[in-house]
Amino acid sequence: MIQRIAIIGLGTMGPGMAARLARGGLQVAAYDVAPVAIERARSMLGVADSVLDALGIAPPQAGVGTVRFTDDLGDAVSGADLIIENVPENISVKADVYRAIDSLIASDTIVASDTSGIPITKLQEHISHPERMVGMHWSNPPHIIPMIEVIAGEKTAPQTVTTIRDLIRSIGLLPVVVKKDVPGFVENRVLYALLREAVDLVERGVIDPEDLDTCVSWGIGYKIAVIGPMALLDMAGLDIYKSVSSFLNADLSNRDDVAPMVLEKTNASKFGIKSGEGMFSYTPEQTKALQGERARKLVAVRRILEGRG
Ligand SMILES: NC(=O)C1=CN([C@@H]2O[C@H](COP(=O)(O)OP(=O)(O)OC[C@H]3O[C@@H](n4cnc5c(N)ncnc54)[C@H](O)[C@@H]3O)[C@@H](O)[C@H]2O)C=CC1
Ligand SMILES: Cc1ncc(C=O)c(C(=O)O)c1O
């Protein structure tokens, strides 16, 4: 049974994951190579906890778990039943972490990766017990979005998948087991199909960025939270989908490289909220207000969707 979890990497995703797992009654050790990331994560726990309160997520009867921060990798993974690797989306950075923990952990300790889309089969090449490695892909913000993809690589033991799926369920989250280890798994294949088209439309001047967001959020986005794509096909009618897709699919963006607009911005260190500018601009005050407003709205929508409005 999983009780002790180590999270390696406390950037965008780590702090919310730590808070959510602790709320599920688990004992979390949180580690990062960067002291500044540890301090930032520590300061974010209270905010995440108040969002979990607003969501009405109660701890189990045995009580709420704990989050302890450490700057020592050996200390973080010592005695852990599960390690969640959450470092940047780069195979060699992730492989360094697997090599570093290999001799520090028991052969049956589960090692999960929160990779956004690197096939688990590739990551397994860098660990001595590949049968205990699994994909555990959270969605951002991880303390609010309940769905987590679970992905087996070619060498993952079925029991490893079952253990992680059951753990996710046991703390009130929603596991989705992906049946094939395809790049991007399912959530990001769908998201990146949408983002490729959205970026292309803005880049070609078909629409302004603000209007693109209005169109998608108030059109498809709002609807799709209630009616998933497969159900939507039935609601619209497969005959309609057949007619439209017969001419539209051929006209959709099929670019297989990164769009020039994105390269231009990233080359100028315009990464979005984290750097103050990306598609839009953000002052620190605006960022704080935006994060609060988004959390409030996501909480309200989730409560309604769960029938707890
Ligand atoms: N940002 C997002 O929306 C999502 C990201 N992911 C995935 O989660 C993983 C982490 O992503 P983010 O949190 O966005 O990245 P991030 O870049 O915000 O944070 C990564 C953290 O890892 C730390 N780190 C780097 N090397 C390390 C090492 N050797 N040991 C310990 N810590 C180390 C960095 O100091 C940093 O704090 C990536 O694989 C990403 O693709 C998954 C879901 C959503
Ligand atoms: C743009 C983007 N890329 C990856 C992920 C997750 O892996 C997300 C997300 O969770 O929101 C994302 O927005």
TrEMBL record:
Keyword hit for rRNA processing: no
Keywords, in A-Z order: NAD, Oxidoreductase
Keyword NAD: yes
Domain (3-hydroxyacyl-CoA dehydrogenase NAD binding): residue spans on this chain: 5-181
One matching Pfam family: 3HCDH_N
Domain of life: Bacteria
GO biological processes: fatty acid metabolic process
Binding-site list for NAD(+): G9, L10, G11, T12, M13, G14, D32, E89, K94, S116, N140, K274
InterPro entries reported in the protein's UniProt record: 3-Hydroxyacyl-CoA_DH-like, 3-OH-isobutyrate_DH-rel_CS, 3-OHacyl-CoA_DH, 3-OHacyl-CoA_DH_CS, 3-OHacyl-CoA_DH_NAD-bd, 3HC_DH_C, 6-PGluconate_DH-like_C_sf, 6PGD_dom2
Sites marked Important for catalytic activity: H137
Residues covered by the 3-hydroxyacyl-CoA dehydrogenase C-terminal domain: 184-282
GO MF annotations, alphabetized: NAD+ binding; oxidoreductase activity, acting on the CH-OH group of donors, NAD or NADP as acceptor
NCBIfam families xref list: FHMPC_DH (NF042925)
Family per similarity comment: Belongs to the 3-hydroxyacyl-CoA dehydrogenase family.
Protein name: 3-hydroxybutyryl-CoA dehydrogenase
